[in-house]
Design goal:
The protein is mainly alpha-helical and 387 residues long. The chain has 14 helices and 4 strands. The protein has a two-stranded antiparallel sheet with strand order 1-2. A two-stranded antiparallel sheet has the order 3-4. The two termini are 38 Å apart.
Length: 387
């Protein structure tokens, strides 16, 4: 089996295990009342069980055990405690998500849980070691700043994915595309000698992709199972861990423009849709005098629905945007001559996103049009009707 094949096995193991655990998770959730009841902001019309987060966490554990038993990947578990640290951090954040799903945690309490998960990653060594800044080269992160940066990174990505989790299959599909891209990116850097073979980033990214693929059949519209905050926060921690150890540990590549900029930009490209949505939400709510944790119905997926797209088409459009952004990450890895076009492509897509979703766009035709009930999330908000 070639270099990439072993990671395909991990993704497949995660997908199969997650898919297998969705059925018992559904039954248990219904039995204990861990369900989403339709409300005024609901997109679904029937009581739907949570439990997807638990199924994905179980799938993650299975994938890690399979990886530890594979001779080709066993070294990742012998030389470092980072894989175990990732699993423990995920267990912590799933617990936080479960409590939030059932008891509606306050925003400070939820952020505290995210900081706790980030602390586990920090003590396990799952952190950044350097930044690469345009025209400044590599900037080594001082030991006193590593805990803060790790916490900020985890809080940002967990909330970005939590906010985009507003339609059936949306968050799972976006993270599947992004994590698959990140895995290929990391493995390619290993082949080129720019990333150590002991880096756990590709392993975590492969497992994350598998979890999402295994969950999607139960979550695509009309969803039979929701991931809840437990699942959304889990995916956020996994993406935080994998982006930190890949983007924050890549060796310098002098003379190669793309590799010089890429580690800093990778998360902002492959997770461009949820990060842009989160940034717009914070600015929009702050400008209107609301707290940034207050829910609204102006997320990207809400705007697409108001423009007349249906549920599935809206999800497909945002999947496509993520795929296009991810393609801009992978293409230069295999065709370096396109490096010069990357900044222009990113700028064009950014302008396109801003123009298309600008609040004044098609006023009277889109924003003023009736909006079907759609779930909306906010930082620190419980979302019993998400997806």
């Amino acid at each position: 089996m070639d270099f990439f094949g072993w990671y395909v096995v991990i993704a497949a193991a995660a997908a199969l295990a997650t898919a297998a655990f969705t059925r018992p998770a559904t039954k248990i959730a219904r039995k204990v009342g861990y369900v989403s009841i339709p409300g005024d902001r609901s997109v679904h019309m029937r009581i739907t069980p949570y439990g997807g987060g638990l199924a994905m966490f179980a799938g993650l554990c299975v994938a890690m055990v399979v990886a530890a038993l594979m001779p080709q990947l066993r070294g990742l578990f012998i030389l470092t405690n980072e894989p175990v640290g990732v699993v423990i951090a995920c267990a912590v954040i799933v617990g936080v998500g479960l409590v939030d799903d059932m008891r509606n945690m306050s925003a400070p309490a939820k952020v505290a849980g995210e900081v706790l998960a980030a602390s586990v990653l920090y003590f396990a060594g799952v952190t950044m070691t350097q930044f690469k800044l345009p025209f400044a080269g590599a900037v080594v992160v001082g030991p006193s700043f590593v805990p803060l940066i790790t916490a900020i990174w985890v809080i940002a990505l967990t909330n970005a994915i939590n906010l985009i989790d507003g339609l059936d299959g949306l968050a799972a599909g976006i993270v599947a595309i992004a994590s698959g891209t990140l895995c290929v990116y990391g493995l390619r850097l290993e082949q080129l000698g720019l990333l150590p073979a002991t880096n756990i980033g590709p392993l975590v990214a492969a497992a994350t992709c598998g979890l999402c693929l295994g969950f999607l059949p139960s979550n695509f519209h009309p969803a039979r199972l929701f991931m809840g905050d437990a699942g959304a926060l889990l995916l956020g921690v996994l993406m935080s861990a994998s982006t930190m150890v890949i983007g924050g540990r890549t060796a310098p590549a002098s003379g190669v423009t793309y590799f010089f900029f890429a580690p800093l930009l990778i998360p902002f490209l492959i997770l461009g849709v949820p990060l842009i949505d989160m940034a717009f939400a914070i600015v929009r709510r702050t400008a209107s005098g609301q707290g940034f944790h207050q829910a609204d119905k102006d997320h990207i997926h809400h705007r697409l629905l108001r423009l007349g797209h249906g549920h599935r088409r809206t999800v497909a459009i945002l999947w496509l945007w993520t795929a296009l952004l991810s393609g801009m990450v992978l293409f230069p890895l295999f065709e370096p001559s396109v490096n010069v076009f990357i900044p222009f492509g990113v700028a064009a897509m950014g302008v396109g996103l801003y123009t298309w979703f600008h609040p004044g766009l098609r006023r009277g035709e889109g924003d003023d049009a009736p909006l079907e009930p759609v779930a909306s999330a906010s930082i620190g908000e419980n979302r019993p009707e998400m997806q």
